[in-house]
User: Fold these one by one.
Assistant:
Number 1:
Amino acid sequence: MAQNMAEIWKEQYRQRFLQEGRLEGRQEGRQEGEFGMLSRLLTRRFGALPEAVVARMRSADSEQLELWGERVLDASSLDDVFR
């Protein structure tokens, strides 16, 4: 009986960790996609990006990347995007 319970708990933990891993992977994929799109938009609009801008974008979360992406539409300079 104890061995059976141990197997059940083991499977429950395995399922939980798999689910957490999937969620984390999706978040990382979304963030990488947003970074890539923002990078392409900024490069096309303003030319080559300074390393400091790329580093700032790499350290940003998805919400921040989205906000900057929306600002690209109205910005007249890189500074306008990152204000």
Number 2:
Amino acid sequence: MKPTLLVLAAGMGSRYGGLKQMDGLGPSGETIIDYSIYDAVQAGFGKVVYIVREYFLEQFKETVARKYSNVKCTDGSPLEFVFVTQELNKIPARFLPVNPERQKPWGTAHAMLMAAEVIHEPFVVINGDDYYGKESFRIAADWCRAHAGSEGVYAIVGFELDHTLSESGGVSRGICHYDAQQHLTDVVEHLAIQKNEAGEVWGDNSATGEHVQLAGSDLCSMNMWGFTPDYFTKSGTIFETFLEQNAQELKKEFYIPYAIDCMIRDGSARCDVLSTPSQWFGVTYKEDRPAVVEKFAQLAREGVYPTPLYQ
């Protein structure tokens, strides 16, 4: 069984100021998505599903056809690519028309629902503008293979908080809480997380408003999740309930952690917390870009990745 990689690439990246998904950061102009696909293939994935916006769909298709045409899976078969689009009006008909003043998409969990018709096997969801590391993909792929045929059992790949901070400013992170069996109990969003001069990590708990000290070893969500395909049916039902309350809102979004939290609370699913030793990095701010470029250059110098990644 070859799991599928679902890439969330519909966001514009407002803080960064452009399409991060297309930005060449590697020594030979590789994008972060290029590295994610390279790592996923080595971990045994067989298909990549991109979620994009309609206005840059053709640009994405052309880029994929050019870069990845010769990429083979570990069993020698061609890597499969599928494209789906996330748009505001792609919601159940009874909630249309959408408020004409709304501009924001409906969020990451809505984006995932766009892939319901093209994914029928265990799959992993990632952001298109985050670097997750080889070990993270191996861990996620192993989980998928172990849960083929399962239902109501999902997973989150948790990164140590220390491995996800930005030197350019505070970041928002969902801190994972879990029980003795490593089953997720909730994800609590913390804002403006950064180290002080003493090396302590502090952030603002979004639920309580408190400014709290956090441990560098705390596991946090970087939006890398493992699912079995029954997730789509469960999430679709929760989305309809969400729309019943928020269909005319201008900014409310339907996020993956919210959907998972609903399932945990009603007992319809459990979520395993997987820990990765990998260092996350990404371009949250424009000021992060030079450091990320240097990190990819260093990985190439160390032989972790060939350059160019794709011939």
Number 3:
Amino acid sequence: MVKRFYPLLAGGGILLAVVTVVAAQVSGDSSLDPVSMTISQYAARDGGGAIETAMAVLGLASLALLAGMRALDAPVHGWPARLIGLWSVSLIGAAVVPSGTVWQGELHGVLSAAAFVSVPAAAIQLVGRLGQDERWKATARPLEWLTLASGLGLAAITYVALPGHGVMIGLVERLLLTAEVAVLGVLAVRLVQLTWGPSLRERIGDRHAARDFLVHR
């Protein structure tokens, strides 16, 4: 029974994290510039703790997603599972470790880089596998496009962080994060459908059968 709640924890956690981050950006200090500041820099100066909370929730939701996919015997074994696990651990680590000192800031940078690389790498391998699985085939095409967007975003942030001297790095990082969270969101939605869809259809069918029985009595 616990396995049936993995999809709800994954989908609900991802949605909650997205709403929290958006709310923090909208209602944050006007002196903080999300276009030029990375998420870690923004979180360090914001002081409200909303960004850190969202990162932890997203990391835990990703672990629930991975557990749910494994429970349904999805083709996520091997490197995709390891990479999603790395993404989750990196997010949770970045949420727990303060970012006040220089070494803490450097650690945040390492954790962020590990997280940003892991999702596109996992998605590249999952596209082909999911396309060959009838249960997950519907996610292959949108996942393919999101993987492409994540790859382009990863290339863009690498350029901005090195020869680009950090110009608009905050904007590029947020667009990359949006694409990567969308990858997880697509998987979470399909996981919910596969886990709860059949039982929901059965309950609806039972209601229709009961109604027809009463009508034709």
Number 4:
Amino acid sequence: MERVLILGATSAIAAEVAVLHAGRGDRLHLVGRDPAKLAEVARRCAPAEVTTERADLAELSSDEGVIARAVAAMGHVDRALIAHGDLGDQLASERGFDAAESILRTNFTSAVALLIPLANHLESRRGGRVGVITSVAGDRGRPRNYTYGAAKGALNVYLQGLRSRLYSAGVKVTTLKLGPVDTPMTRDHAKNLLFGRPLPVARGIVAAMDRGATEVYVPAVWAAIMPLVERTPERVFQWLPFLSGR
């Protein structure tokens, strides 16, 4: 039995991760912004032991307290998943800094604000696992979502450094690079065969963290696609509408 902290637990993917851990008999502490959705995820996790906290993780000054209360509720954390994020409005982020800063804060800065106290806790215990959901968008800037992609790309680099820092303490840090998933966050996006589904993606996340993976693409097909996208020369990239289009 593990003591599992899920931050952003009301997202479609994180909720499925919570249910999977509940099925193992793990102890759960769920943090999310919407109290009704949080209660529904907790209900789905029954009869596992579950505590919850309502919090807006983009409120950076409160994030250290969120981790402290999670540790107090469970005694300690064995495994944590940081799952919150938001695509934001790319066009608005091009027109004014406030919209850009909101995307960067939600998808990068807030994760750092949570990771600092969480990493310190796990380092002091000399073990544990952290998984952080990033995105394939962080591998290459594209006009349709480059502010969001920049936040996720920065988070990928931060996690590389954190992983090496915590290696000697026996703490595993897994970067979870998700492709697009059919969830409420992508409800306005045209769907294609590359879109994942929440439950299979959740299973991939749990399996990656179980084996202590460093960086993993979920679904796995993106491990074949993204190296090609990354290595496409800039001039060729800009000629291809499916890559450089809005």
